[in-house]
Design a protein that fits this description.
The chain has helices at residues 39-67, 70-85, 200-204, 253-269, 288-291, 323-339, and strands at 89-91, 104-108, 112-114, 117-119, 127-132, 143-144, 149-151, 157-165, 168-182, 190-191, 194-195, 214-218, 247-249, 279-283, 308-313, 346-350, 359-363, 369-372. By secondary structure, it is α+β, with helices and mostly antiparallel strands. It folds into 2 domains: 87-180, Immunoglobulin-like (Sandwich), CATH 2.60.40; 186-373, 2-Layer Sandwich (Muramoyl-pentapeptide Carboxypeptidase, domain 2). Strands 2, 5, 6, 8, 9, 12 and 13 form a 7-stranded mixed sheet that branches. β8 (157-165) and β9 (168-182) form a beta hairpin. α4 (253-269) packs across α6 (323-339). The longest helix is centred in the N-terminal third of the chain and has 29 residues, at 39-67.
């Protein structure tokens, strides 16, 4: 929610104090000051002292200037000038999705990614590098910044973009970049020791059948990285009981953007441009192995491809998760899909007593589908 307004404390009252004026000023004669004796001699001494002080001060300043080499004299001014000369850079608004609240982009290792950058001034002379999150060391070589398409690192992980010109580095912390392990690196049902299972496309041996482009490599330290304003990495990790790290997660940014647009629509209906909602993600990505044990789940569930999430949202802000919240979410999803048909997908409203709270399944499969459970 929008933060509550804080009223400033009352300023302290200023008390005026009136100084007392003597009722009667003394009326005695004012005596003339006596002229000092030997004025000429004393004045000459004073002038000579002042001249000596000026000369000694000038000599000291000159000595300091002569002592410092020219490069030291210019270093401060040159650094300041360089700082002023390098324009400020930031991620362009379109890099955060339609909602403006997507905090992560996804790309396979070594592929190119659209990552538009806004430069407030002359963009010539910039180079870019990818820096691992929570690190100051570069995991990539510096490349010239030419346009909005950048080359992703070869090593999977989570990265921030650093742009450099004239020795000044500017780091963009949002959105971050998740570099994926390509799907083809999965060996059978496992990836680097993590049990994923087999996708329908693998069973059918159909190269044209759908499969994720790749998997984000998630370590324990990455769980609280934000995917969006309301969703974190941990919300999309499969709720299996495996203890091996790293884990691997498929995420489609379209469903992230869609959920944030739904939340914006809920805020609009409450008279606000943007609000912070309580969002519980019951299920994000599911591995095929885990999904096979979920009662009532489809064999080719959208959760396998990372473009679906089961969410419970406190839409009315009363601190409870009820069926009325789910109905409000349902209406908001319909409105978002009407405005953004490219985000069309499935919507399921689940209100059975088998579940702890009512919730909605939201996905971005590309075609409209509705059901209740």
């Amino acid at each position: 929610m929008d933060p509550a307004r804080h009223h400033g404390s009352r300023g302290a009252r200023v008390r005026r104090t009136h100084g007392r004026v003597a009722r009667r000023l003394g009326a005695g004669p004012i005596r003339a000051h006596r002229r000092a004796r030997f004025a000429g001699a004393l004045g000459g001494d004073m002038i000579r002292r002042r001249v000596a002080l000026v000369l000694s001060g000038t000599a000291a300043i000159t000595a300091v200037i002569l002592y410092q080499p020219p490069e030291q004299l210019l270093a401060g001014s040159s650094a300041a000038s360089a700082t002023l000369a390098v324009p400020v850079v930031e991620a362009a608004p379109e890099s955060r999705g339609i909602s403006g609240d997507v905090h992560m982009q996804f790309v396979r290792a070594g592929d190119r990614v659209a990552f538009p950058v806004r430069v407030r001034g002359n963009a010539n002379g910039f180079t870019y590098q990818w820096i691992e999150v929570r690190s100051n060391g570069s995991a990539d070589v510096a490349r010239p910044l030419r346009g909005d398409t950048l080359l992703a690192p070869l090593t999977p992980g989570f990265y921030e973009l650093a742009l450099t010109r004239a020795g000044i580095v500017q780091r963009i912390t949002e959105p971050r970049l998740a570099v994926l392990v390509p799907f083809e690196h999965k060996l059978g049902s496992t990836l680097n020791g993590y049990q994923i299972g087999r996708y329908p496309a693998e069973w059918e041996r159909d190269e044209q059948a759908e499969r994720p482009a790749g998997f984000a490599e998630v370590r324990e330290a990455d769980l609280d990285l934000p995917l969006t304003r309301h969703i974190k990495v941990r919300d999309f990790v499969t709720h299996d009981r495996q203890t091996v790290w790293p884990r691997y997660v498929a995420v489609d940014p379209r469903v992230l953007d869609k959920i944030e647009l739904v939340l914006r629509e809920l805020a609009r209906r409450r008279g606000e441009a943007r609000m912070d909602f309580d969002v519980e993600v019951h299920s994000g990505f599911r591995t095929p192995m885990y999904n096979a044990g979920v009662e009532g789940s489809a064999r080719d569930s959208r959760h396998l491809y990372g473009d679906a999430a089961d969410v419970a949202i406190d839409a009315d802000g009363d601190g409870k998760l009820t069926i009325f919240d789910a109905y409000r979410v349902e209406q908001a999803v319909e409105w978002v899909e009407r405005l953004h048909p490219e985000l069309a997908g499935g919507l399921g409203v689940y209100s059975s007593r088998r579940f702890p709270t009512p919730y909605c399944h939201i996905d971005a499969r590309g075609e409209r589908k509705r059901w209740r459970g």
